[in-house]
Amino acid sequence: MMDQILLIGGGGYVGSVIAEYFLKRDFAVSVFDKFTYEHSFSVDRLKGFKNFKLYDASMDDYSALDKAVDGKINLVVRYGSKLLEFAKGKNAIELASESEVADVLAKVREAVKLGELDALIEKQAQYGRPVTQKNK
To answer: How far apart are CA 116 and CA 18, in angstroms?
Structure first.
């Protein structure tokens, strides 16, 4: 069975570059995006890949999400270019089935709103590049 990637919100420029990276390495890639700004041109070039699927739907469209997910799922949360590490050496939440995706995403969203991921984000932010302002 081919390894599969699901990119939620992957319809923009960065998501299309990530999708293309994995498609060129023979992964099956599904992009799930609502296209709030009605710009899907970033993923148009990917439609020629046989292992590419595009879902134009919001995250709360659970029937579309169920169609997009197939097989074992590892959910990762990113802060910029870095994966958040939930426990030592663990940067993914493994789900047993696609039926868990919507509930886990809702729990992650709620944890963000309540500030429960702030410590993880602060820890990750310290590894970022320092920003300095040039003198004019």
So the answer is: 28
In angstroms, rounded to a whole number, what is the distance separating the alpha carbons of residues 15 and 8? Answer: 9
- Phi/psi at 3 (5° precision): -65, 145
Q: For the residues of 54-111, what is the DSSP string, one character each?
A: EEE--TT-HHHHHHH--S-EEE--EETTEE--SBTTB--EEESSGGGHHHHHHHHHHH
**CA-based nearest residue to 91, from 100, 99, 82:** 82
Rounded to two decimals, what is the model's pTM?
0.55
- Per the document, the length of the chain is 136
Radius of gyration over alpha carbons of the chain, in Å? 16
Would you state the pLDDT for residue 24?
Answer: 92
